[in-house]
Write a structure and sequence with these properties.
single chain; alpha+beta; six-stranded antiparallel sheet; 1 helix
């Protein structure tokens, strides 16, 4: 009887530790839950939960203007928009300024990189329509 009680007392912390490790492993898995629309002129992410990195490219022309709505509701979201030459046109976390525009300086393919950690929010990037 004493031996089985000793084994139980030794196994209980080990089982608890194993449970914590499994929980942390599952909690930090990369994944995306939400809706996503991407094409050469648009990137719309409505994020219910995201962990990991997402890349998208936009084919744009000099003088184009991107209308951006970027809001982080929970967790951490970071977005960067890079020009074809690698310079960053925008870097931010969607907490301070959430509705803005970015002017496109040259023709080419622009990269949108999003990093998320246990995040909820939205990123809407679309070509602003010209008004006549």
């Amino acid at each position: 009887m004493k031996k089985s009680k000793l084994i139980f007392l030794i196994m209980l912390p080990l089982l608890f530790l194993a449970g914590v490790v499994v929980f942390l492993f599952c909690y930090n898995q990369e994944g995306f839950t939400g809706s996503c629309i991407k094409n050469p002129k648009v990137c719309l992410l409505d994020i219910e939960r995201m962990n990991g990195t997402d890349l998208h490219t936009l084919k744009l022309h000099k003088g184009d203007v991107l209308q951006i709505q970027f809001e982080t509701e929970k967790g951490a979201l970071y977005m960067e928009i890079k020009a074809p030459d690698g310079t960053a046109l925008y870097r931010g976390n969607g907490k301070e300024i959430t509705d803005f525009t970015v002017n496109i300086p040259a023709d080419g393919v622009y990269t949108v990189a999003v990093e998320a950690r246990h995040a909820k929010g939205n990123i809407h990037i679309q070509l602003k329509e010209e008004t006549s």
